[in-house]
């Protein structure tokens, strides 16, 4: 990703939301850390028919596969994030604890990032408790470190994904819930976007990705005064919500975090009205191979 594009997006964000200046600066620094390098991957052997069968059955493509995670890359990215957060007063103390735990081998960075790769937040939390680390901080570090690897595999598997139909609400690659929806083109077709791997899949505008309901009476949206770009789609059956924004082009995967930040006031509005996103991912991912077995429940 071009650094200049990131800078431009951040400037535009701060111009429209001056109160987000600090959060945007942090987000931009974090994004700079994780996208400065490309993650080493190994091809996943996934014949076209098997990919189609998986997607038809509602199984995300990465599930049950032997996915290579490069330890050196993971340690490098995790280390960059730790070093960055060390320079910030609000996180300095917390990351110092993380750094000591890693140095003393109470925290195995490759292990915790592998847990974040499969989105096992419960396991990341267990690691945090055992190593006496702030759990939210470790979730953030581990998820951010896993993201460039997820995005690299999403790119690898883009062809089988584009060739098949996917009719579920969760990500067809990694099983996470969409972070937001983009309404594109003259028909405002609805594209759901994964905030982890960046995948993009279409859904009817009248469909709750969380519970699958598609009737008028249960679905609605919150329009927030003064907000022109984003709105919030809500479901009155499962109380889920999803932010939706008009988009001319798909946001590059790396930029989804900025769109998410630019619309954070809509999250607050949705939460105030009793809506929430499901705490568990849409599909619980597991890998095979040595690592997968090791991290299985
Ligand atoms: Zn995903
Ligand atoms: Zn619902």
Account of the protein in words:
Strand 5 (230-235) and strand 6 form a beta hairpin. The chain folds into two domains: 37-159 and 287-295, no CATH class; 177-272, no CATH class. Helix content is 47%, strand content 11%. Helix 2 (21-35) runs antiparallel to helix 4, helix 4 packs antiparallel against helix 5 (89-103) and helix 6 packs antiparallel against helix 7. Strands 3-2-1-6-5-4 form a six-stranded mixed β-sheet, covered by helices on one side. By secondary structure, it is α+β, with helices and mostly antiparallel strands. The chain is built from twelve helices and six strands.
Main sheet, how many strands, which sense, barrel? Answer: 6 strands, mixed
Shape field: globular
Provide the structure class.
alpha+beta
| Biggest β-sheet: strands ordered side by side in the sheet | 3-2-1-6-5-4
Please report the number of helical segments: 12
How confident overall, as mean pLDDT?
A: 92
Which oligomeric state applies?
single chain
Outline the low-pLDDT stretches.
Answer: 291-297
Kindly, what is the distance between the CA atoms of the first and last residues, rounded to a whole number of angstroms?
36 Å
What is the N-to-C order of secondary-structure elements (H for helix, E for strand)? HHHHHHHHHEEEEEEHHH
Percent of residues in helices comes to 40-55%
Share of β-strand residues: 5-15%
Q: How large is the radius of gyration?
A: 19 Å
Domain module tally: 2
